[in-house]
Amino acid sequence: MLSSYSHSALGTYRSCPRQFKFRYVEKVKVPRKVNVDAYLGNVVHRALRRLYTLGADGILCPLDDIIDYYRKEWEKVDRGALTVVSDYYGVDDYIRIGQEMLITHYRKYQPFDRGTLLGAEIRLPFVLPGTAFRFTTIIDRLTKRPDGTVELCDYKTGRQMLRPQDPAFFFQMGLYQLAVAAAYPQLERIELVQYYLRQDEEVRHEMTPEELDSLVEAMRLAILETIQAERMDDFPPVESGLCNWCDYFDLCPAKRHKRLLGELERNGGGELTVEEKAAERAERYLELDQKEKELKAEKDAVKGELIDLARELDATKLTAPSGEINIRLKREQKFVTKTDDAGAFADLSFAVRQMGADDYFVLDAGSFMKEVYLRGRLTEDQKKRLERFVVEKESARVTTKLYRQDEDDES
Ligand code: SF4
User: Fold this and answer.
1) Among the atoms of ligand 1, which is closest to the Cα of residue 239?
2) Would you give the DSSP letter of residue 186?
3) Residue 256 lies inside a defined structural domain of this protein
4) Is the CB of residue 173 below 6 angstroms from any atom belonging to ligand 1?
5) N or C: which end of the chain has fewer CB within 10 A?
6) Is the shortest distance between the CB of 251 and ligand 1 below 6 Å?
7) What is the pTM of this model?
């Protein structure tokens, strides 16, 4: 268990558990790559902090000064150390884009004194309500408007604009709101605002108490998942475009074999090295795996046809020259799963937790349905609360019998 969690730590676990292990569990020391997008974000954030901090004291920093400050921040970094993955953009393009963002923002929001500045880039630790899990957040800006509403602001310099219902907005901004509510319980109304500097847009949202409850539950489950992974030492690498920016690329088990093969000199016909043997066996496995997938796809398609035909014939057994196939169709009540609807699943798990039955539910939701929900072991109120999370699903059990030998295939 980590001593403190953050939105980005849990985001790292979601995108690649192995990277999470390198960074937060093993705390491997490697030279950090400086991604040009991230550096652009940092420099723009620093310039905005300056503008708003001065603005709060009634001082308007001249545009030329802030641009000068911004450009000097870029001089502090070794350009050669910046990672740029685009074929079309160079560091100068990033500097220009950041400058344009600042100028647009400056013209629209000067003199940066709308309300009382409660803090800029403030670090707020808090404990996730109802748990012992600690979080650390850094909030770009907290401003109290004249009507008493507190704006919790986050600046974005990326290309993607989120909506309040997007998980990335919901989780990040919701955690920030929990942090502010814990640190300043006297603040009654909080509005979450993301400023998209590239697009010159704002996305605003006020979270309901139900949304916050659901967020707390989702965070609790996400942390439990990382603890379970730690217990089982199960942190699989998940490769994606993010690998190009990964600080642990050279250590990653998903990249190791390819790297070692690349380092090998071509073997002149002697005995295969371990790396070469692994490559040869991997090739054979790929061939077999492909064949198996083709067969499985064909088998699944035929199975679907058989189920439809059995339905049409109103038959539970289909007979073939060499054997028979039993088909049992069943409609069952099941709880909504994370795959069906992640939001509904988080609400369900929160409701079950409030009933004090979350251990049972987390271990085996199927048994909880059969042994508790369907057997009437809940009070009327409890059952009513869970009803909206119950869905009907059809399952088909298909078993085969060869006249010469028996073989079962179940699904
Ligand atoms: S290189 Fe890719 S797969 Fe490996 S740890 Fe990094 S992000 Fe994960």
Assistant:
1) 3
2) T
3) no
4) no
5) C
6) no
7) 0.69
Of all helices (H) and strands (E), which one includes residue 258? Answer: helix 253-263
Q: Is the CB of 30 under 6 A from ligand 1?
A: no
Residue located nearest, by CA, to atom 7 of ligand 1: 243
- Looking at the structure of the chain, the number of domains it has is 3
What digits encode the pLDDT tens for the residues 154-198? Answer: 999 999 999 998 989 999 999 999 999 999 999 989 999 999 999
Closest among 212, 33, 20 to 128, alpha carbons compared: 212
CB environment 265-295: b (16+ within 10 A), e (fewer):
eeeeeeeeeebeeebeeeeeeeeeeeeeeee
The finding on whether 119 has its CB within 6 A of some atom of ligand 1 is no
DSSP state of 24: I
Same domain? 52 vs 96:
yes
Handedness of CA 84, 85, 86, 87 (dihedral sign): positive
Q: What is the pLDDT of residues 126-159, one digit of tens each?
A: 999 999 999 999 999 999 999 999 999 999 999 9
Q: What is the pLDDT of residues 193-252, one digit of tens each?
A: 999 999 999 999 999 999 999 999 999 999 999 999 999 999 999 999 889 889 999 999
Domain range spanning residue 166?
Answer: 7-229
In this predicted structure, what is the pLDDT of residue 411? 47
Question: How many angstroms separate the Cα of 240 from the Cα of each of 165, 246, 347?
Answer: 24, 10, 30
CA–CA distance, 86 with 293 (Å, rounded to integer): 36
Q: Does residue 182 sit in the same domain as residue 285?
A: no
Q: Is residue 374 in contact with ligand 1, taking CB distance under 6 Å? A: no
Counted residue by residue, the chain has a size of: 411
